């Protein structure tokens, strides 16, 4: 219907009409005057560029919205479809009260779905706070276990609140209002790295499609592509905070997004996002929105078009090692007192069996004291109990 109106209104070319098959979006920055109808106005129709539409209405008119909360280094995404809510991850411990406050301020009195992508602290800490304060109808959890305290807290509160937990499999489909939520990954939960066990969702609301892959890395991305999952999307939530281990060329080719949301902490010690990822997104002509530069970001959709709370970020600067804390002194493996996992922020004795399973890029050796590690935010491994 809207497509017909567009064709008559501006006589856009057949090619431009075809572009509408993937949703055409625009940015909305200031609250706009309510428009008499929800028909988008075409402001510009470049010959072979994307169709640019003007703002189509206020956020409240949207039947669907997806907000990337600004949780710093971590991830938390609130999806709303026809008044039902899904929360995908809740950020790290420091972000927990902000996530809870955000839900309360936006009158989210109940979550239809609570999803933990995987059990890393920067994804599930905030979920514990949310479970304590907001009724949750059902939860989707990845089907693996881990020995962290925060994982235990999550299990405890799910039990206390008697939340039904589902461990989804690739190909499962759930609904949220009129949105369809497809589980596109992981292929299985047998990956050695927890990141690769991330639950990956493709959310479809009318013609508008979003892809969320948590911290899934190369191996899991390639398996999703190889297993012919439905990956094409309009909006891609950049995997693993823009790490170079994610957002592979294979995934971008198939997913072919026009917009990307990136959740990353300013001056984080991982140097996320990486130059490699920034370049890949740029080369694919994807408009980027990032929390470290722009704070919370929302995309709205009525199922035909979409629009944003702000303009794309023109700043493609990768993360650099200008972390507020000077890095811990690292020492050669043989003289190390402890081994750090810089991703899970745990420390282990060098002989701990989990050290062997740690991926090399997350591993660091240190002779720092236990106290210093604790002040730096590290927690002791529950297995070797250093
Ligand atoms: Zn993460
Ligand atoms: Zn992770």
Describe the structure.
The chain is of the alpha/beta class. It folds into 3 domains: 52 residues, no CATH class; 247 residues, Metallo-beta-lactamase, Chain A, CATH 3.60.15; 48 residues, no CATH class. Helices cover 23% and strands 24% of the residues. It contains 11 helices and 22 strands. The strands form 4 sheets. Strands 1-18-17-4-5-6-7-8-9 form a 9-stranded mixed beta sheet, with no helix packed on it. The chain has a 7-stranded mixed beta sheet with strand order 10-11-12-13-14-15-16. Strand 15, helix 8 and strand 16 form a beta-alpha-beta unit. Helix 3 packs across helix 4 and helix 4 runs parallel beside helix 5. The relative contact order is 0.12. The N terminus is likely disordered. The site of one zinc ion has 5 residues, from loops.
Q: Please estimate the helix content.
A: 10-25%
Tell me the number of strands. Answer: 22
- The global form is globular
Considering the protein shown, what is the CATH homologous superfamily of the largest domain? Ribonuclease Z/Hydroxyacylglutathione hydrolase-like
**Spatial gap, N to C terminus:** 65 Å
Number of helices: 11
Which architecture of the largest domain per CATH?
Answer: 4-Layer Sandwich
Strand order within the widest sheet?
1-18-17-4-5-6-7-8-9
Radius of gyration: 21 Å
Kindly estimate the percentage of residues that lie in beta strands according to DSSP.
15-25%
User: Structural class per helix/strand content?
Assistant: alpha/beta
